[in-house]
Amino acid sequence: MDVYSFLKDRTREISKQLGLCMRDRAPGKYAVRTLEQMIRYMIIAMHDGYGDQTGTFVQKQWTEQMTGWQGDLQDNNYSVIKSSRTLSPAEKKNILKHEVEMNCYQIITTAGSSSLWQRVVNQIGKISDAGAQGSKLLTEAIKIA
Q1: Where are the domains of the chain?
Q2: How far is CA 87 from CA 33, 76, 90, 101, 144, in A?
Q3: 142 contacts 107 by C-beta, under 8 angstroms
Q4: From CA 71, how far away is CA 22, in angstroms rounded?
Q5: 32 near 78, Cβ under 8 Å?
Q6: Residues 6+ apart with CB under 8 A from 77
Q7: What is the spatial distance between Cα 111 and Cα 48, in angstroms, rounded to a whole number?
Q8: Cβ contacts of residue 38 below 8 Å, gap of 6+?
Q9: pLDDT, tens only, 85-131
Q10: 123/27 Cα distance (integer angstroms)
Q11: C-beta contacts of 33-38 below 8 A and 24+ residues apart
Q12: Rounded to the nearest 10 degrees, what angle do helices 131-144 and 99-109 cross at?
């Protein structure tokens, strides 16, 4: 579990640095990909650390950190990219290609808090806008939650 604690600290620093770098410029695919990979890492680490009896893995802290990254990804990256007038539709599609996957993770992660879960589901919008595959994934995530 020490490896996970070390990596948690490093990824926290990366997210802080990303926040500082992004203050003066629009989000891009590298910031989005970095946050997406960090969220995936958190999911794997939480799975591996679940049930840890040593006390080094505190699920609440990990969940809060991952929920924060998910909110940052949605609010400060995806929404800005969607409304960008400088990116072509093809560029937007490329950058946003994992949005449905990340939304599914966010739905499942926030299931413990009904008010937060409801806000996330409302923010995502119409499931039908996600396409056939995306609609199926989002529907399954809601069932799991």
Answers
A1: 1-97, 99-145
A2: 17, 16, 8, 22, 35
A3: yes
A4: 15
A5: yes
A6: 27, 31, 32, 35
A7: 20
A8: 11, 14, 15, 69
A9: 999 999 999 999 998 888 888 888 777 766 666 677 676 665 556 56
A10: 19
A11: 35/69, 35/72, 35/73, 35/77, 36/73, 36/98, 36/102, 38/11, 38/14, 38/69
A12: 10
What is the residue type of 79?
S
Residues 90 and 1: their CA atoms lie apart, in Å, by 41
Q: Is the model more confident about 123 or about 79? A: 79
Give 46's contacts (C-beta < 8 A, 6+ positions apart).
Answer: 59, 62, 63, 66
Model's pTM, two decimal places?
0.73
- The amino acid occupying position 27 is P
Residues across the chain: 145
Q: Which helix (H) or strand (E) holds 24?
A: none
- The 10 Å CB-count burial string (b at 16+, else e) for 36-53 is bebbeebeebbeebeeee
Q: Which residue has the higher pLDDT, 106 or 23?
A: 106
CA-closest candidate to residue 140, choices 98, 108, 117, 96: 108
Amino acid at position 45, single letter: A
